[in-house]
Amino acid sequence: MIGYVARRLLLGVLQVLLVAVGVFALTEALPGDAAVTRAGDNPDPAIIASLREQLGLDQPVWERFAGWLAAAVQGDLGTSLVGPRSVAEVIGSAIGPSLLLAGLALALLVPLSTGVGMLAAHWEGGRVDRAITSTTLGLYAAPEFAMAILLVTVFAVQLGWFPPTAIGSSLIANPALLVLPVLVLLLRPICSLSRLIRAGTIEAQRSPYVQHVRRLGLSPARIRFLHVLPNAAAPAVQQLARTADWLLGGVIVVEAIFVVPGLGTALLDAVSARDLPVVQGLALVFACTTVLVNLGADIAARALSPTSEVGR
Amino acid sequence: MSKYLLPGVLVVVPVVVALLGPLFASVDTTKDVAFLLGGGHLFGTDFLGRDVANEVLLGGRSLVITAVTATACTYLLAVPMGLIAGMTRSRLLDEVLMRPLDVLLALPSMLMLLLLAALAPGNMWVLVAVVALINLPDVVRISRAAALSLSTRPAVEAMRLQGEHRARIAVSYVARAMRRILAADLGTRLTGAVYLAASASFLGVGVAPGASDWAAMVDRNRTGLFLQPWAVVVPAVLIVVLSVGVNLLFDRWLRNRDVNFLEAR
């Protein structure tokens, strides 16, 4: 187990490193640079040149990358090219709302999808099951932004139950703000996870070991939660790791629609302002998160079901 | 046949609007007041004062074409890659083809979309390339796994003993036998491509500022949601209907095919 974790950790570090190289190369290829952005309208070539020198943009690419990576390892991600703040400050101020949204969505996701999946499995083939399976199959495909805007139109604009955007008030002070964003974030992951839980539960219920504990006379609740669920959950836990990626994409879209000042909004702003240090810093944060969540989920899946083969 | 009725309608309506809409759209582009409700317009006017119904007719083509083209590109690249990686005897070639894909998988797709598309804002082909690239690792893995298991079949061994060239075996037998497995995956890829293309256009990636595009309409008409919801609701509903329809249709088709397959045995 320790060897497995060490191997995966090493692969993870390699992945993050390669992502860093890739993102650096990509941002290099972006047309225009921060000096041009900063020089404003009617730019004077002399001003652009002096800005480039000041920002260190006149040095060769690989030198800048080596310097950036060495500093990043020590926790220094540089300063934003557009504003006066450091990249760490930009990330630090934006991470709160995103973590709140993602954390809340994840915390609700696990019990909700387990519940829905087990409900469908309990009445396998019945009307409830058919309703749940076709709804989850259909909704899984719907893009978040379209669902979000339809929910806003119905519940915020027409019915006025929830505020349409988070402009001008804090998320914690006003929990009603969180309802629609978290609902939108949950829609797609719930669909895929509950389908997996359903399939896993049905399979586990038919397996010989469950029939055996049934014959032993254990209570149905005990069988369901202590014997069926852990085995049914293993594939779902792996799927949960892939949710990290969607959650991120979902967070970017949801933050854009509900005007939440989180990491997604910071990324959108940084990309459109060509604020390369911020883009690189955010990309590094996202890559680390994805790798870590994948690692955590693979280890959890292995612990839940030691015999199943996990990854390589 | 009734099994296909609902998903069929869900797919056909938005696709027909998207592909044939531009033929029926009016060329008359005189602008009215922005965010007008009614006023001689079926769905009112948009943020620039254009007729929403007309914009809806014009705006679907880019989404459908982007999604279909990107999926086609994914398969064109992924199937040969998977075939070579699965059938080669060189471990090195296999690793060289497959390892970079692991990195691609670790890269959050929305991040990739935003970065790559910032290279050429307003260019549909960049969007097609990025969507194709995001779908690539999964399809290569599936093709490789399929090729690997197919290449150990007795038929392949027999062809090898007869002295057939490996490239010929790969194309004439393995690739043909892979069709079933790849077809089963097509629905997921197409749904994913529609999802990515629409989400990207919504975030302002790959669409020119004044372009007619369903996802971009949702984004740009959001400011007038309180004045005139139709400009947002109509394109949003069409996008949802298209995505849900594609997913349901392929699921029905697959299940039906599996039933036929089992009965035939």
Automatic annotation (TrEMBL), chain A:
Keyword Oxidoreductase assigned: no
Record keyword Transferase present: no
Protein name (record): ABC transporter permease
PROSITE patterns documented for this protein: ABC_TM1
Keywords, in A-Z order: Cell membrane, Membrane, Transmembrane, Transmembrane helix, Transport
Organism: Saccharopolyspora mangrovi
Residues spanning the membrane: 99-125, 137-161, 167-187, 246-266, 278-297
Domain (ABC transmembrane type-1) ranges: 95-297
Lineage: Bacteria, Bacillati, Actinomycetota, Actinomycetes, Pseudonocardiales
Topological category with respect to the lipid bilayer: Multi-pass membrane protein
Homology family: Belongs to the binding-protein-dependent transport system permease family.
Matches recorded under Pfam families: BPD_transp_1 (PF00528), BPD_transp_1_N (PF19300)
TrEMBL record, chain B:
Cross-referenced InterPro entries: BP-dependent_transpt_permease, MetI-like, MetI-like_sf
Entry superkingdom: Bacteria
Localization in the cell: Cell membrane
Keyword terms, alphabetized: Cell membrane, Membrane, Transmembrane, Transmembrane helix, Transport
Organism name: Saccharopolyspora mangrovi
Transmembrane portions of the chain: 63-84, 186-207, 227-250
Record SUPFAM superfamilies: MetI-like
Domain ABC transmembrane type-1: 64-250
Metal-binding in keyword set: no
Name recorded for this polypeptide: ABC transporter permease subunit
Family note: Belongs to the binding-protein-dependent transport system permease family.
Bilayer topology: Multi-pass membrane protein
Pfam family, one: BPD_transp_1
